[in-house]
Amino acid sequence: MSRPEEQQEERGGREPREQRLGPVVRRRGHMQEGTTDQRLLDTAGSSDFVHQDPWRVMRIQSEFVEGFGALTELGPAVSVFGSARTPVDSPEYESGVQVGRRLAEAGFAVITGGGPGAMEAANKGALEAGGTSVGLGIELPFEQGLNQYVDIGVNFRYFFVRKTMFVKYATGFVVLPGGMGTLDELFEAVTLVQTKKVTRFPIVLLGTAYWQGLIDWLRDSVAATGKASAKDMELFHVTDDLDEAVALVTKEAGGSPV
Question: Does the pTM of the predicted model rise above 0.90?
């Protein structure tokens, strides 16, 4: 399993050792260019896509069926997000382990993106505590794969299908320090709560030093200029206390599924 620094080298030009296309793994001369999402969203070139898109719907449908089938009996669960680049020997990694462990001890399955870094940490904590550790992987142009601490793993081709699973089968989010993907999941969850697509869905950001700049911007720029309401700032909690984070996300859990 490659570590974040190895993945970074691959992004920088080194050829990946394998390619994951949904449930299919391709290696060496059998790897294909691009990803399924890329081919779906790319409208340039031939008009053949007019004839191909209806068939893509069947593939999308199959991904929903696979995800629903794997997770429908999961029970209460919390999705944990964070950076794939979090070093194993960092305090943030240890926080992820502790979050996963405490959620499992509280009777919740732990759902992550299944990758390395903070995701691996939360899966590890859940597994070591005897809980259910879930990883929802995604097809990427560089190697990643599911980490070794995942009990139930599903690899998706399409981001939007995967993102549905994160919300549908979780009753709350814990968000560790992360990058663009983490921010994407955070703001999608906040939007779903704001628009009442889900109700009683706690969102906890762990690490005030990391998140404070974003919180200040949301309050002083977004809310202050009327782009959001002051009440929207109450849709999530920010804390450094692991016990408080787990208590918030488990006590308030019970949101309606999408």
Answer: no
